[in-house]
Amino acid sequence: MNGPGQARRPQTTIFTLMSALAQEHGAVNLGQGFPDESGPAHIVEAAAAAMREGRNQYPPMPGIPELRQAISEHQRHWYGLEPDPGDGVVVTAGASEAIAASMLALVEPGDEVIAFEPCYDSYKACIEMAGGVLVPVRLEAPGYRPDRERLRAAVTARTRVILVNSPHNPTGTVFTRAELEAVAALAVGNDLVAVTDEVYEHLVFDGREHVPLATLPGMWDRTVTIGSGGKTFSLTGWKIGWASGPAHLVDRVKAVKQYLSFASGTPFQYGIATALASGDEYYRDLLEGYQRRRDLLADGLADLGFTVHRPEGTYFVTTGVEAFGYEDGMAFCLALPEKCGVVAVPNQVFYADGQVARPEVRFTFCKPEAVIEDGLERLRRGLGRM
To answer: Which structural domain range is residue 16 located in?
Structure first.
């Protein structure tokens, strides 16, 4: 599994490749971030009812009014933000389209976009599609905390946008209020626009606080906030996301979005509108369940000899694999399905220099506890063969 060429797969194919290896070897897929379980029954029924009632044609381009109102109310309830449901919210085909539309709307050829790396792999692609240049600011192991001096040094005369993902995929870091205040001061001081990817906003553990950047002084008028129903409600296949913020920025995102998907998922939009009205108890139960799964996976991986970075948020665990004789996480992940019957994802695909070997790999705990336990047992039996 370590032969020439095999440890240097293009990052655009790694997730497809790992899914194929999972199927080929009957492996437990603890790599890709999609739940094995469906979302709550009342949400699924709301979408089914919309279908039965004939709500199956194109929705309004910005999204159905019920969902835009629900998104606005969600932002007000949780964070005190008040995007106008009429012109401050646009529904997208998942958060991925919101990111793409934001980059295409806000970035001109030659503009620089700062993002913290490792970062979700679509960021670089979307920035480059807009003609921009990704300027990565690295979060270094083992703490994966943003460094203010490194961030400040990344700003040039060509910087236009700062892209912030907290809770952070893949490391699980949740930026503190003080860290985000440093980002805000940089944005205000250099007249930058911020785009924030907050799809894991309700998966923040151990009593930590999720702080939307848009809530900080001077940031509302310069921030596009991106959210999604997929992660919070275990409905990733519905692909219902959104961007919210001040009208002058959201209008620009809408202008691009209309030429991407135009609109999508009419009945699913009704389902997510129902989902966002779920009471606080739903969110508490969600968090408690995921925290149990986090502890199960993180503790189990540590017991097996992985170097574990216990996540503060998201549903991913970053681990080091040096203890098993690997300095190349890609090689480790390519061998893992055959040798152990488990799939993980190499973190190197989340770096701008994605062809450089790194010893970190990502596991997910968005699976039932029985599946996580099965994966850990397979690792326990198979790691000696790696």
So the answer is: 11-38+281-385
pTM of the model: 0.94
Q: Which amino acid is at 51?
A: M
Q: Does 258 share its domain with 133? A: yes
How far is Cα 121 from Cα 274, in angstroms, rounded to an integer?
A: 30
Measured between alpha carbons, how far is 250 from 355 in angstroms, rounded to an integer?
A: 35
User: Distance (Å, rounded) from C-alpha 161 to C-alpha 101?
Assistant: 14
For 304-315, give the DSSP string: TT-EEE--SBSS
Contacts of 244 (CB under 8 A, 6+ apart): 71, 72, 75, 81, 83, 88, 89, 90, 224, 225, 227, 250
Are both 154 and 75 inside the same structural domain? yes
Query: What are the tens digits of pLDDT across the range 80-128?
Result: 999 999 999 999 999 999 999 999 999 999 999 999 999 999 999 999 9
- Domains contained in the chain, number: 2
| Alpha carbons 345 and 13: distance in angstroms, whole number | 12
Rounded Cα gap, residues 375 and 346, in angstroms: 17
Whether residues 195 and 128 fall in one domain: yes
Closest by alpha carbon to 174, among 353, 293, 348, 309?
309
